[in-house]
Structures are given as C-alpha cells and as structure tokens.
Specification:
The chain is mainly beta and 454 residues long. It folds into 5 domains: 116 residues, no CATH class; 80 residues, Immunoglobulin-like; 74 residues, Immunoglobulin-like (Sandwich); 74 residues, Immunoglobulin-like; 90 residues, Sandwich (Immunoglobulin-like). Helix content is 0%, strand content 49%. The protein has no helices and 40 strands. It has a 4-stranded antiparallel beta sheet with strand order 9-11-14-13, with no helix packed on it. Strands 10-16-15-12 form a 4-stranded mixed beta sheet, with no helix packed on it. Strands 17-19-22-21 form a 4-stranded antiparallel beta sheet, with no helix packed on it.
Length: 454
C-alpha cells in the first residue's frame, strides 16, 4: 500500500473544503502486493477530487504484481524522493504516477485534485527569477495578512518578515523539477502563494585541483593545490599507488607508494568531486650483470625507474660504455682498477654502481690438465693433437700461419672452458714442414708457438 498524506496549515478551516496542495504534501509508501495472481494496479479508497476534512488523508494502495515496487513520475510539479512522491506547489490539477514491480509490469494512473480557493489569494513575485549561487533575488507579496511564513528548499535562504523578502542562492537547483526551486508563502489567515526561482551553479562550485608534476617516483612526493567547491576537502587514490596526506586547508601531498597510474579523487564537503591522474614510477636504479670483469671482459649496465632518457659516465675511465639508446650499456674493461658508474635520469636524479676491472691471469699454452707446454713443439704428420689454452681474456682465436702444413680445427673449439678450465682446439697435420700457431685472446694478447711436423 502507499498513502497519499495531506499536510495541514495550523489554521482553523472549515471541515469540508477542496484539497489543499502544499510543498511536501504527500508521500507514497509501498507495502507488498496482496496476491500473486492479481494484476498490478492502484487500489483507490478515496475518489480523486473528493473534499476532505483538514485532518484526513487520501489513502491509495497498490495491489497485485511482484514486490519490490518502484514509483516514478514525469510531472514537472512532482518530485520522487526515495519511495516518496511530493507535490511542490499549491497548484490544483491532474497529477499522474506510475508504479512498476519486479516482474517488469507497470501501471500509470492519474488523480485529479482541487484546491480550496480560500487558501489562495496571495500574489507572489520574484525579481530576477534566475540567479547564480551566492546572488540574491527580491520577493514581493501583494495582499494577505502579516505575519507571513515561508517554506523553501535548502538550496535557497529566504530572509525578511514580509511583505518583502530576500532569497539568496546557496546551491544549484539542477536537481529539482525543471531546474526550479518552489518558494511557498502563507499569511496569518492561511492564504498562500508561491514563486519559482532558478539557481545556477557558480563556475567554482565544483572543487578543482592542480598537481605540481605529471609523475612522481616511489618514495617521493608532489603537491596538490585545491580550490573551488566548499571546503574542507578530501583526497583519495583508489589505486593505492600514492598516499595522500593533508598539509594545509587547500594543500595535500601525494607520496609515491608503488609504480602505476594513480586515480586521484578530490571531494568537497558537499561531495562534489573532481578527478585526475598521476603517474607513479619506481625510483631510479642501476644494476650491473656482474661486479667484476677482466681487462677486455664485458658486462651489462642497466637503468630502470626514474624518467628517461638516461645517461651514464665512468669517472675513472677504466671501461668503455656503448649505449643502446634505451636503458642498457655494453661495458668493456680497458684497464685494471675500480670505478663507480654514474647513471642520471631526465629529472637529474643520480645513482651509482661499482665495477672492478681486474688484470687477467697470463695467457698460456697448456696441456689438458693446465700444466704449461713447451714454447715449441714437434709432431708427427697425419696425427691430430689437442691444443689447450688458459688465462688471458676469453674467448680466443687460434689459427695457423702455415695452412698447407697444418691447420686448426675450429669446429672442436669450445665457447666455454673444459672441465679443467682450458679452452680446446685440435691441430690437424697435413704434411711435413714447419709453421706457427697464432693464439690471440680478447684483450689482444698473442701467443706464437712454433710447430715442426716430421
């Protein structure tokens, strides 16, 4: 069931009169339907337009259908507030409402009401009829008997004792029917009248924010400056990429917590909101694939976090740096020593990472156990021989300067050391003669081993 309730003025009126409609005049309250098989409809207990005593209410009901129910109306002088339906003016006439149920069924009915002309008669005018929040309009009442009482929505403040009043806009009237506020005035004898006022939003009615940077690093902070709207403000980040903290009535700090795109929401005391975003990046860091290399050895230097582009330098000058244009450098040891590479990002943040370049052990020709071999060798022809090298800066190249006499078999060359730590080649004799094995490491050290084949 829902009830159409009648609000009364505190005035002794005749027992029977036309139905008086006033602001917040009636509310529609829903109760469950009384039968599944029954068709959804209004159950009317009092005929529309019937004259009623002051203290009575017009009771209407809903029958059938499937709860829960929903009431709607398109009438510009009606307003739905939750489950209540309110008439905003003194105006008599035909008013309609629609009820729908959980099954998608709906029914619309119209109800005609009359108004006792004895309660009308005040002429109410307002100048101007449209203002901005913070501005005022003058209300003038013609006729009637003082004192006057005023009823107005919370979006407007009406001051004065009558017959002139001042209406000041406190908030936008956009949420009301046709965007208008209804101001009702009643005199001492119960006569009434009303006027309508439109209150437009102030350009600064919604809050605003200005973030001091487009991005912030984890562990660092940027400042948010707030304005507009109605303080105090709240600042939240639904992504938890930042930790908002108030540092003043209109200033907040956003501290980077984790990398990502932060969704920042600012709301004022009326819950009006403005939204923005902030990129949170990891703090600048630099890493080396290894902390120690040999002269001629290589490593990878990488930058991450911070803001690109990056740059890197070696203040000690013991290594060369070749940049890939993004975030990596190929490092090559030039001489023994230690250095701290300096890596800088676009915001001039600087981090350092240490590299030690060591002198390599001597480059040697050895046997399979790593023991030194003679500086010259005599072999028999037509028999293959293993060649083992160690030390220096791998990888090596091993060639013959007498390819007609013997050659080195590069297919057996191992890119990694053998279990004994040596690097292995094979000498393939071709005919009797002499020549040299030329072995070279990556640092440019050369071994020349005379070979005689018999």
């Amino acid at each position: 069931m829902f009830a159409l309730h009648l609000r009364r003025f505190r005035t002794a009126w005749p027992a029977a009169f036309g139905l008086l409609l006033s602001p917040a005049l009636f509310s529609l309250l829903l109760l469950p339907g009384i039968g599944r098989a029954q068709q959804l409809d209004f159950a009317q207990q009092v005929k529309p337009g019937q004259q009623l005593p002051t203290n009575e209410s017009v009771m209407l009901g809903i029958v059938g259908g499937r709860p829960p129910y929903k009431i709607t109306t398109s009438d510009p002088k009606l307003e739905v507030r939750g489950n209540g339906l309110y008439l905003l003016t003194f105006t008599p006439g035909v008013y309609s409402a629609t009820v729908s149920d959980a099954a998608g069924k709906s029914v619309t009915k119209s109800f005609t009401f009359i108004v006792n002309q004895a309660v009308l008669g005040l002429k109410v005018s307002i100048t101007p009829d449209t203002i901005t929040v913070g501005q005022s309009a003058a209300i003038s009442v013609t006729g009637g008997t003082a004192p006057f009482s005023v009823k107005a929505p919370t979006e407007v403040r009406v001051t004065g004792a009558g017959p002139t009043f001042t209406a000041t806009g406190l908030d936008s009237s956009i949420a009301y029917a046709n965007g208008k506020l209804i101001i009702n005035i009643t005199d001492a004898k119960g006569k009434g009248g009303h006027t309508e006022l439109t209150v437009k939003a102030d350009p600064n009615i919604r809050p605003s924010m200005s973030i001091s940077a487009n991005s912030v690093k984890v562990g660092q902070s940027v400042t948010v400056t707030l304005g507009g709207g109605k303080p105090p403000y709240t600042v939240t980040d639904t992504t938890n990429c930042t930790a908002p903290q108030s540092i003043g009535p209109t200033t907040w700090a956003l501290k980077g917590v984790k990398a990502g795109l932060a969704n920042i929401t600012v709301r004022d005391s009326r819950q009006a909101g403005v939204f923005g975003s902030l990129k949170v990046v990891d703090a600048l860091a630099a890493t080396l694939s290894t902390g120690t290399i040999l002269v001629g050895g290589t490593a990878d230097l990488a930058a991450r976090g911070g803001a690109s582009p990056y740059s890197a330098t070696d203040p000690a000058g013991i290594a060369s740096l070749q940049f890939d244009g993004v975030s990596h450098w190929a490092v090559r040891g030039l001489k023994a020593g230690s250095t701290k590479f300096s890596v800088k990002d676009a915001t001039n943040d600087v981090v350092s990472v240490t590299l030690t370049v060591s002198a390599p052990p001597p480059f040697k020709y050895v046997d399979e156990r790593g023991a030194p071999m003679p500086q010259s060798m005599t072999f028999r022809k037509y028999t293959s021989y293993d060649l083992n090298f160690i030390g220096g800066v791998p990888p090596y190249t091993v060639t013959s300067d007498a390819p007609a006499v013997f050659r080195t078999d590069t297919t057996i060359c191992s890119a990694k050391p053998t279990t004994s730590g040596t690097y292995l080649w094979t000498l393939q004799p071709l005919k009797a003669g002499a020549g040299n094995i030329i072995a070279r490491d990556s640092a440019g050290t050369i071994l020349k081993i005379p070979i005689v084949l018999k």
